[in-house]
Amino acid sequence: MAKSIEDFLVELDTNSKLLEAYKKDPVATAKKYGLPDDEVQIIADKKWDELSKRFDDTSKTIRVINY
Hints:
Layout: H1 5-14, H2 16-24, H3 26-33, H4 37-44, H5 48-55
């Protein structure tokens, strides 16, 4: 199964090593994770609105995160 940017962002939330690598070099970390070039480009271009659209699906279960 191909990894998606949605999977990557969820993994960032649960994997502290991946998050630290992302903070140092977001693009390289996304590539190493296995994201397709078009999704890596979203991160490189900082198209945060595009990411928001991908998560704006009210048919999905809401995930509550507590820190």
